[in-house]
Amino acid sequence: MKAKWLTGILSGVLAVGLIQPAAFAEEEQTIEDEIIYDVLIDRFFNKQIENDFEVDAQNPAAFNGGDFGGVIEQLQHVKDMGFTLLSIGSVFATDTYDGKKVLDYRQLERHFGTEEELKEVVEKTHEFDLKLMVDVPTQQVSSNHIWAAEHPQWFSENEEGTLALDTSNPEVQDELIAAMGDFIRTYQVDGLRLSDADQLDPQFIEKFSEAMKEIRDVYLLNDVEMEETAGFDAMVLPGAEETLRESYKNFGADSTGLGELVESSEGKLIQIDSLLGSRFVSDVVAERGFPPTRMRVIFSQLLTMPGIPVVQYGSETAMNGITPQESHQILNLSVDEELIEHISDLNSLRNSSEALRTGETEIILEEPNWLVYKRSNEEETWIVAINNSAETKTINLPADVIGSDKELRGLFESDIIRQEANGDYRITLDRELGETFHVIDETGFNKAYIAALAVLYLVFMAFLWIVWRKGKQRKANRNTTK
What we know:
Strand order of the largest sheet: 9-8-5-2-1-11-10
Helix content: 25-40%
Radius of gyration: 28 Å
Strand content: 15-25%
Structural class: alpha/beta
CATH architecture of the largest domain: Alpha-Beta Barrel
């Protein structure tokens, strides 16, 4: 399988010191080291029938049966794809499968499972060397929320009949901080994501962040595009999803803004899908494109550019959907694994390379549907080339970009590019492909390999000589006997 092939290549590269993973393996990780996999518990995997209360898998608006046991069942899948942080959505008692219409922040949703089962989810997640994050919805909670009857002044009513907590109210702030503080202490999760964060009071966000981090060093993230706000460890990059989707929904699409996006994405949450709306595949289908190819190309950029990638469950199976309910299908892994392997390969590469996670970025070439950029730090250099056109593309990179006496080794198409007589490095890429080249010192002839072959040859010749001598001796002995 290709995933095993690339894993072997990366292992070999690591073995000879071409990639330096020490910072990732030994130093404490930051949010910029994470690759986030975003799921909804109810739509991920149904493991236990004991909590299937009035479940209707045929109704996209109803609970479909996913539970904490199902999350545990699929942790190996998440780990194998190379993700480092699992986001499981809201887990609190709720009226709806997506967890948004919260009833009580101090009770878990019975469809999902018990306190003991959520603790097991956290424990097993950590055993897989993954982190776990949950959502905290506050702006579309149930009209039957436990606080509503006693404290109606804490809420305002939304048009669809749900309630929004007034996070500028000090009493609301204190209650939310107390409830989430107890939640973190009990379950030891690694991150919280504030839903509808653009509707929250900025002072509450900062106060909430400080209070949570005093209890445990958790990540605090947002979920929507908004102005910069203190308290978040990372925020969604405005315009990133739209720019990526418009650029890659078909070959030859308008790619204006990709270079600027790459240069501005450092430290930001970047994604091509959202559990709040439609899937990228719906854009591809509307353009009559081929989703697997489009997904491979767009992931080639998402997982090699600066920023913190957020990948929604089902992206690895090219899940389609326009409305949220259509986009929240049960995960089906009975599919062609080629896209899953491609995501796994890219994530493995990103996890192995500090330069691809936090290194400097330089745009080398930005033309319509032809993007080339460099990711580097003091230890390593990568060249990422993405051809999103309908024709083969070529670029000559001068020595002042790459250096002299180097090689560019493509990790996906297996190309080896060496310096030409004029000093340039010539990259040629077929249509609708993304490639990541590792820049290393030119290897030339492998002297150790040649020496080993010479020794093997001498040993083999000596073996033949010994066989010949023994044969000659046996023949002489037979003649003497006669």
